[in-house]
Write a structure and sequence with these properties.
Number of strands: 5
Oligomer: single chain
Strand order of the largest sheet: 2-1-3-4-5
Strand content: 15-25%
Largest sheet: 5 strands, mixed
Radius of gyration: 17 Å
Structural class: alpha/beta
Number of helices: 4
Order of helices and strands: HEEHEHEHE
Length: 168
Amino acid sequence: MLSKRENYISWDEYFMGIALLSGQRSKDPSTPVGACIVDKKSNRILSVGYNGLPVGCSDDDFPWGREGDVLDTKYPYVVHAELNAILNNRSASFEGSKIYTTLFPCNECTKAIIQAGIKEIIYLSDKYAETDSVKASKRMLEQTDVKLRRFKSNLDKLTLSFHPEYTP
């Protein structure tokens, strides 16, 4: 009798992998970010998102730079991955769910996360920890019952293949 495969990935690795893969859809040349919202009880994916422009706005007609006059940068136009994941859901409740995100959420996304009823944030990177936006996020999260957890894995990378004969 054949036994089950032993080297499968954990739920955390799976969902963070989905967030990373979603981030690959982003057109942002400096900070592609992805997010995946999951039902805490059943480990069902409720929604995904990545940072990009609102529906109907052309990726070619808006700036992607980080410096200069505010209206000539990406900041007033790009919808962040976490907010996109919240907005992309059309029917499921997020009450008690968890969100996997490749970058610690900014203060605006944190407000949306709290308001949506998401109860846990699992993040990969906190590279902007010293910014006012992230400091404000952490201050709000300290006042709520939203848990924070940095993603941890023994894996350095996970390889996907589009060739059916590839077997991990």
